[in-house]
Amino acid sequence: QGDFSSVSMDTAVAIRTLEATYKSSAEAASVESMIAKLIEKEGPYLKSKGRARDAARIGILTWRSLLIMSRDWKYFWSRLVLYMLLALSIGTIFIDIGHSLSSVVVRISAMFVFVSFLILLSVCGVPAHIDEIKVGFSFSL
């Protein structure tokens, strides 16, 4: 039923033949009519070339990163433990700073230390996030 070993056909010719066969088929006509009905019904939402908004793309990438991180529990728990140790260590360093006006500078420095360490810890996940972005762009092309 399917022995095509004796057929020698150039790949480009095969692709053109398949395209021409599909374009002249009933399935192509039904798909075109379905697309026309959807464009009439949905209007400008479908005319935006199928691109998602930036917020939706960031949300999807974040969800996928969390999903991948949840599959590897050692990675998830190690990051959680590091964040907890960071909060505990900064909290113990700046526990008795007082309530005077000069302690405002110390409180601000504590916030900067905390934020800088959070950024440092979150940079560890950047390579995985970059891989997710590459996968997302390969799906959109």
Topology record:
Blueprint: H1 11-23, H2 26-42, H3 54-71, H4 73-93, H5 103-122, H6 126-140
Keywords:
single chain, 141 residues, mainly alpha, 2 domains, 6 helices, 74% helix, 0% strand, elongated
Kindly state the mean pLDDT as a whole number? Answer: 76
- Number of structural units classed as domains: 2
Q: Given the structure, what is the number of helices?
A: 6
What general form does the structure show? elongated
What would your notes on this structure say?
By secondary structure, the chain is mainly alpha-helical. It has two domains: 35 residues; 87 residues. It is 74% helix and 0% strand. The chain is built from six helices and no strands. α4 runs antiparallel to α5. GO terms for molecular function: ABC-type transporter activity. InterPro entries: ABC2_TM, Plant_ABCG.
Summarize the structure.
The chain is mostly helical. The protein contains six helices and no strands.
